């Protein structure tokens, strides 16, 4: 069984097309968990209009933020494999089958993506090339993050070892770095989604937005602290 977890917030413009691209690839026994972070627009209504029993909706009474919202979606998922999804992308037709094959070999999988604008016009043929990502060692990913949660899938049992997510670092960065250190990461070099970048996007990946050097260094230091703490806890067991 596959579970797709979709953390939504004010996503009415794109959520319908994304759901359609996902549902077309799932079996009748699979599920899509939508954890909505107190949206005030029609995001939830559009999801309900699909009238698809595979869609399960969890409503947050107040804002949790995207990291804790994904965590809540994971708690509701029943599948052996958990696919992470943003609300505004499009899954390409072979995504689920290719990721399933990779998950038989490794516990955590990331793929490449085609970067598109809000109208799905191609901006870059490869997110990896855009980020100049040619290696996926710990050092390469730590200093120049190139793996995005919108392309990620994990085995549920492995994901459980990474919970709860640290609240002060990106959850996909946390998962990717731990998977590398644990020897559980596989990279699919084919692009398996259309990664939509637009003015209202929640992340800065593949946008013109820039962060200060101090902000980046602070995030890396916090991440290093969390990674070290996890390894100390595991050795103490």
Helix content: 25-40%
Question: At the first level of CATH, what is the class?
Answer: Alpha Beta
- Please, how many domains? 1
Order of helices and strands: EHEHEHEEHEEHHEHHEH
User: pLDDT under 50 segments (min length 5)?
Assistant: none
Q: How would you sum up the global shape? A: globular
Would you kindly provide a written description of the structure presented here, covering whatever features stand out?
The structure is a single chain. With 237 residues, the protein is α/β, with parallel strands linked by helices. It has one domain (2-236): Spore Coat Polysaccharide Biosynthesis Protein SpsA, Chain A. The chain has nine helices and nine strands. Strands 1, 2, 3, 4, 5, 6, 7, 8 and 9 form a nine-stranded mixed beta sheet that branches. It is globular, with a radius of gyration of 17 Å. The chain starts with a strand and ends with a helix. The mean pLDDT is 94.
């Amino acid at each position: 069984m596959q579970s797709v977890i979709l953390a939504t917030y004010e996503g009415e413009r794109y959520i319908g097309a994304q759901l359609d691209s996902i549902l077309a690839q799932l079996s009748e026994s699979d599920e899509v968990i939508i954890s909505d972070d107190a949206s005030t627009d029609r995001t939830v209504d559009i999801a309900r209009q699909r009238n698809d029993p595979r869609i399960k909706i969890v409503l947050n009474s107040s804002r949790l933020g995207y990291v804790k919202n994904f965590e809540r979606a994971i708690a509701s998922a029943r599948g052996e494999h958990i696919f992470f999804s943003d609300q505004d992308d499009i899954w390409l037709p072979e995504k689920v089958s290719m990721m399933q094959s990779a998950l038989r070999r490794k516990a955590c999988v990331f793929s490449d993506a085609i970067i598109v604008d809000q109208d799905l016009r191609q901006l870059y043929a490869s997110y990896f090339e855009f980020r100049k990502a040619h290696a996926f060692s710990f050092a390469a990913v730590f200093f120049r993050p190139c793996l995005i949660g919108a392309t990620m899938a994990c085995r549920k049992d492995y994901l459980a070892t990474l919970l709860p997510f640290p609240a002060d670092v990106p959850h996909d960065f946390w998962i990717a770095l731990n998977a590398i250190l644990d020897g559980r990461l596989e990279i699919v070099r084919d692009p398996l989604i259309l990664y939509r970048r637009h003015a209202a996007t929640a992340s800065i990946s593949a946008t013109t937005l820039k962060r200060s050097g101090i902000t980046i260094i602070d995030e890396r230091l916090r991440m290093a602290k969390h990674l070290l703490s996890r390894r100390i806890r595991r050795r103490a067991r």
